[in-house]
Amino acid sequence: MIYAVVSITYLIILIGIIIYKSKSVKSEEDFTVAGRGVPVYLLVGTLICTWIGSGSLFGTAGLSFRSGFGELWFSAGAWIGIVVIYFVAERVRKISKITLTDLLEQRYNRTARILGTITIIVAYLVIAGYQFKGGGRFISILSNGAISLETGAFITCVVVIAFTALAGMVSIVSIDIFNGTIMLVAMILTLPFAISAHGGYDAVVGTIEHTKPEYLSLFEGHDAWWIVGVILPTFLLLMSESSIYQKFASAKDSASARKAVIGMLIGVVVIEFIMCAIAVVGFAIYSKDPRFFLADGSINRAMSEEIILRIGFEQVPVLVGSMLFAAGVAIILSTGNTFLMVTSTNLTNDIIKPYFIKGGASKKIIRLQQLSIVVLGLMAYALVTQFQTVLEMAFISYTMIGASLAPVLLASFFWKRVTPTGGVASIVAGMSVPVINKLFEVAGWSVGIFPVDTDYVAIPSLAASLVLLIVMSLLTKPSPPEKWKPFFE
Asked: What architecture (CATH level 2) is domain 32-384?
């Protein structure tokens, strides 16, 4: 009972903050980029919460349960991406666009912008959808099974839509400092109590060495292709994470944007390492629990993704477990808010405004974006039914957006010779490969049209994107200096 009370109380507190902050939204810029006045400490909190979502709480945790500390390769892709982002954050803020697709149009052309918008909308709806799926599991565990996964997912969908539509980016930035703090504290407290629940450090290590000794190694049991396959999706997504670019545009100045990246790197590394460790300890705790294994002895993927919340609900003191569940509220809510916000911003700015509303009043644009949040949120909920696990949804969406946009974005800042034709061809290739692969899987082809499964789909996707980017750019006329100079100053 106390778990539900703490989680609901924390949610009510966040609702109060959002209602208060919604009164400060006066213009479209307030709604989409928080008035471009976000200080460093708030930017750090919201950048961390952008990345640590249901994909981490469920998907990454489940991968840790199934592969041990080797999962850190999956997380390391994002860490590498954050380091690269550090070198472009200041330039992104100086250009002062609202969305990532604004940058695509400035560096390439209108076609690149529209294709980027389509990619972001589709991929981000999948990401928003697995926040709802994660929320369904969260509520089901919290209610001890009284509320089904499907009902819980719908409840999560409604709450996230309401939060996002109420105050936009102002609401996201305002609550993420609280969300980021409670995530960090809850994970730090949970780890030692989880170890203690299994009899201490030696007992945990002994159990793992007896059952899955490779779990204690970064390399054992994994070949180079597996490592590349799990690094690429997170690296590519981080590099093309539209919500991060939009939040850079929210910073009060370019120096703040760059400083915030350092804080983001520290926070993300600490939280993801601890989450991985908790899941590995969870394997030791539940290594003989039939709920986590199928009849053939293999690990139940769906159940493994609940490992962190199961530890919070069943293994640690109530106070610590309650805080962990409050962190779960923070993780699901903050990430769902962000991805719905970015998707609706791209839809409104790139499609509705240019083609259907020219010179519309700011308040009218805000109302349209709020309506698009509702529609897109319901579409994201509908997508949940097409995937079995959070991790599968993560791989597909990360790869689709990463292979489509990361190469063209990096080329914008680091290769003067890239051309609009090369950029458009790269986006088309990157978005097509994972989608075609998934369609063939749904049709009954076990590994899709390409000789890889979902865990490796990033490799052919990135290869196709890079080849077309380079070849088509070299075959076409170089862009004039006014196209690339703002990206190199």
From this structure: Up-down Bundle (1.20)
